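Write out the 3D structure for:
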Amino acid sequence: IEELIIDVVDIDNDILNVLKILLEKQRNNIQINYICDDYLTHEFKEKYDLVIGNPPFTKLKTSNKKLKEYLLKSKNKKSNNLVSFFIEKSLNISENIALVAPKYILNTPEYEETRNILKEQNIKSIIDNGEIGFKGVLVETICIIVNTLNKPNKTKVKSLTLHNEIEQKQSYITDECYPYWIIYRNKLFDNISSKMKFNIFKVFRDRQITN
């Protein structure tokens, strides 16, 4: 049986030690290398077949010394959220990626450049977890699976909350005629939107407004 080599990277050595204990009885054909380092600054020597991860959805303050270093290595200069840095890094070092990300990367201006980078790749699947991705955490998440070798083609969109699955043309749901990705776009949506005028109103969202 061909040996499977897995590199596990975490900035917290205690987490890695716990994982080592949990995996003490691993199968003989699996080799696990434990790397305690910052994933975003670590220099990987090889190209991976697959990167799997659940990066933190953390926004760094401008005073954070690491932010400047991360931005230097990233194309998206508008975001200070670690998840955008993780996406770019993963695309650069692997042929395939499967990452959990906040759903708002699909539809907020901060991640426009991240979306532009992603849509040039072959987006195999977008799994919409809604708010059931993590128990007790009321943040909508997605899992995005991307191949960096092939050209954009079809994208499988699966909703865990609606219990349905559709196959979309990637160019259809990432269409530049809309500022955001519309993963559930269909003929009904197109029919309604064709009768509407856009860019009439400006939207302002103020989180300070409460009941």
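The beta strands are 4-10, 30-36, 51-53, 96-102, 122-130, 141-147, 154-159, 164-169.
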